[in-house]
Amino acid sequence: MRIGKAITLYALAVFALSALVAPWIFWAVVSVGDWPFRRVFNRVMLLVALAGLWPLLRAAKIRSWRDVGFVRDSHWLRQWAAGFAVGLVSCGIGVFWGTAALQPGDNPWKLPGFLLTGIVVGLIEETFFRGGLQNVLQRRIRPWVAVFFVSGLYSVVHFLKPAGAHIPHEAVWWCSGFEFLGGVAACFFLDPDIWRSVISLWLVGIVLGWAFVRTQRLYLSMGLHAGWVFALKTLAWFGGGSLLSNPLIWPVLLIVLGGVECWSRRKN
After folding, report:
1. How do the pLDDT tens digits run along the chain, 268 residues long?
2. Residue 38 · residue 19 · CB < 8 Å
3. pTM for this entry
4. Which 3 state secondary structure label does DSSP give 243?
5. Which of 51, 49, 32, 18 is CA-nearest to residue 176?
């Protein structure tokens, strides 16, 4: 089977299975916690996508962690730290351009938790999107096309739990997963803030994907991802607004993309 067909079937299967399974998982967990259906759906889709990723990697003849992007490299920590620093600085520039005065929030002990969240999210999402999906695609098509496509998917997936697509607890039935997907699609067309955020995350994904293409490793992209997550959560703790919905962050991301290209050329 051609890899393009395998990826298409994989994507359709993830959405369909998630829509079918999510109501049953929701009924199982609602008795122990007050989880909204949109959050349950998001978690179910992540688990289904992870479960189906390994067979997809095998089909593309990716059979080791080295092939995924975890290459033995004495400079791996330096690459990660450089990415983390660039992520912090670029968010800092965005804050300077588009955010009002900030005030520290309560409980500063949340900051180490934000750092841990950034590290974990960067590890999981970069392994899945760049080391997994993008890696599979760029073995069959031009790398920049793979980066563009996977970045779009990465962006859209982050908005599969908008508040506007909320389904009340008592209204959940076995077909609610498909209803929720329809509600998500409607939110995309009705909320301009979502579109601005989608474009911002698309650019973020392009930066991360191109860092993987140019280094053939995940360390730089994981560092960038961790730095951005930590900075955004810290900004929210300070009472700042959303950078993702602010178009002023777009030129900052393009500058970071140019920096990744210049740095990789110098290293090569």
Report:
1. 566 677 778 888 988 999 999 999 999 888 777 788 888 888 898 889 888 888 888 877 888 889 899 998 888 999 999 999 999 999 888 776 655 566 766 777 888 999 999 999 999 999 999 999 999 888 888 999 999 999 988 888 877 666 566 788 888 888 998 988 888 777 766 666 778 888 999 999 999 999 999 999 999 999 999 999 999 998 888 877 778 888 888 999 999 999 999 988 876 6
2. no
3. 0.85
4. coil
5. 18
HEC profile of 95-122: HHHHCCCCCCCCCCCHHHHHHHHHHHHH
Q: How far apart are CA 196 and CA 93, in angstroms?
A: 18
Angstrom distance (rounded) from CA 3 to CA 57: 10
Using the CB atoms, write b or e for 202-219: b if 16+ within 10 Å. bbbbbbbbbbbbbbebbb
C-alpha dihedral sign at 102, 108, 113, 116: positive
CA–CA distance, 19 with 34 (Å, rounded to integer) = 20
Contacts of 239 (CB under 8 A, 6+ apart): 102, 103, 105
How far apart (Å, rounded) are the C-alpha atoms in residues 96 and 235?
11
Tell me which amino acid residue 78 is. R
